[in-house]
Amino acid sequence: MSGTRSHEADFIHIAERPNTDGPYTILTHEILDGNPGALIHVSRRFSLVSLAPRGAFFIPFVPGLTSSKFHTPASRFSSDFGTDLSLASEFYGVANNHYIAVMYSLQVRRWVIVNIDGAPMPLGAVFNVWAFASSDVRQGFYVHRATADNTLFNTSSLDNFGFNGRPDQPMLVTPRLPSPPIASTPFPTPYDMSALCHPICVWFNDRDGRIGYEGRTGRWNIAYADYLPIPTGASFNVFWVGANYGSFSDAHVRICVSDGSMSNQVPCRVASTDNPRTLLWYTQTMNFRGYPENLVYGPRDAPGTPNPNVTCLSWDYQRNVPVIFNENGARMERGVGFVVRHF
């Protein structure tokens, strides 16, 4: 599935044998190929279940299952999205309980999605990709780098005139890794990235002392939800989801907050919520008080609970709603929230 507006693209990427090796899977798109200046946000989805026609065979996520592959006949899938499912259609769902990032490979001159801990990328892993051909700081699509001046312990403060002082203007964030050395192998050379292997969340500082850092009042922040320090030099792709879309609601954004009643899941009530083909992207968030009330789905008075687990998108056909779930089966505690963007 793909949509392109000259400098912008959204599409589904599938890890297949020709494009995957070790911890990497290589992205291919006309605005990305050979373009180290591109900006990419990636969200994991458990399977191609959202491409399946209504009523198709569906195997739900099994808590605690972290490595098995579910199979379904290729005929079960709808193939009218311009996506080649020939190799990936044998996989119905692949767990990948690892934090991911994007990285430009100087070796293959392509962007790759990578398991930060170096674990092998499973064949059949599926990702929703939102990309821009270049950064634009004025529009809120840019690379944020952690420095000694803007970072303290597990929090790095953002600075952009578009969303400074505006708690109703959240963003999506994807870690961006430095390119590894060029080698003679056809895929990038693995290197130690363990210092960057952490869950990401965003939050607005309104002087409530949340997660132990006052920082700059009225600023958005990127934080590691496991409370470990962000190293100097760490980079993140920032996508201000309100930019160029008018009001907050026009940006098709919702803040989805767990009420603690759905085990390891939180439902994502967004527009077109009954359409399993809708592309979604998300980033964990905390501190919901500044968001417009009608755009917060879930307990608005929740404390903003950090979730240190690897998360993933799926579709709940019983409730007819997309869900974000913890891949390791851990409980989604009350107050865990996500910024969810859809097209």
What do you see in this structure?
With 343 residues, this protein is mostly beta strands. It has one domain. It is globular, with a radius of gyration of 19 Å.
What does the secondary structure layout of this molecule look like, with pairings?
Layout: E1 2-4, E2 8-14, E3 20-21, E4 24-26, E5 39-45, E6 69-70, E7 93-94, E8 100-105, E9 110-115, E10 126-132, E11 141-145, E12 151-152, E13 155-157, E14 171-177, E15 200-204, E16 220-224, E17 235-240, E18 253-257, E19 265-267, E20 280-286, E21 296-297, E22 311-316, E23 321-326, E24 337-342
Parallel strand pairs: 8-14, 15-20, 18-21
Antiparallel strand pairs: 1-2, 2-10, 3-4, 4-9, 5-10, 6-7, 8-9, 11-17, 12-13, 13-16, 14-17, 15-16, 18-24, 19-23, 20-24, 22-23
